[in-house]
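Now for today's protein.

===
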Amino acid sequence: MRADRGAARAYAPHRDQVLGLIGGGARPRRLDGVPARSRPRSRRAQHPRRHRVGACRGPRSAPCDQGRRGRLRKVLDVGAGRRRQRGDAGALPSGSVIERLRAELAAAADPLKAAGMQAYMKSATPYRGVNLPQVRAISRGVFDAMPATCDEWRETVLELWRGARYREERYAALMLARSKRHRDCLTPDSMPMLEEMVVTGAWWDYVDEIAGLAGDLLRKHPKQIRPRMRAWSTDVNMWKRRVSIICQLSFKRETDLELLYANIEPNLSDREFFIRKAIGWALRQYAWTDPKEVARYVRAHDSRLSGLSRREALKNILPARGGR
């Protein structure tokens, strides 16, 4: 604990460089993957949990999903021909767009920041040292020059994601995936792309943003995406299970409680920190809408909820609003 607090203080200056909404504030939530004290009075930055994550569970994990990754890539183009295509005269091809993005990120690099950002995120992939507002501004300028077709959008997202040399490049890929200019391109046919990004990203800063994209699809296409989220809730891959739990964080009164509880159920006994945190986070968010229901759920499942999940779920519930 003493070492964790010391690490948190050491890396606190870098926290704002690596935390935030990649989508530019489109959703009223925060990235919540790093451990934080459950007591409401504590608001200090917390260092990511010091533990040796298992295979496929962290940024240092060996690439253990190569076979699955190959299968995912083969199905990415299914249904692409049915999407609405839009052409832009004079737009840059995807290769030129990526080269320009990398050049601008390199020009904005800050090696002193980069070391702290990489240490804070416990990332094997290096950072350029470019904070998220800068990455966002650079990405917007570069992506405005690319073709607006859905084929080019998907190709650029995947090429940038797969070939990323620095972590900011994958942040840029996520920004492009959420681009308003290409909002019509994100369809149920995009799920294999998102699945690949979850499996190969395998760390909370990436996965929590992808969960937001999956949530966007769930809201628009519940019949197609709901069964996928149910399947992910029992998947062997921990990060897919996390997505299934937190994909409705911004839904408020539109939250499908039956789906949320069904996705939490098979994970109640999971000892993995990122699953326990996800359960508490999802319940805490819904507590802003219906604190009495969340308090009821916690009481009904008190013997099965971990202490972390329980504390997180009740964090925003005062006795006057629903009781504990």
Summary: The first helix runs from residue 2 to 18. The mean pLDDT is 81.
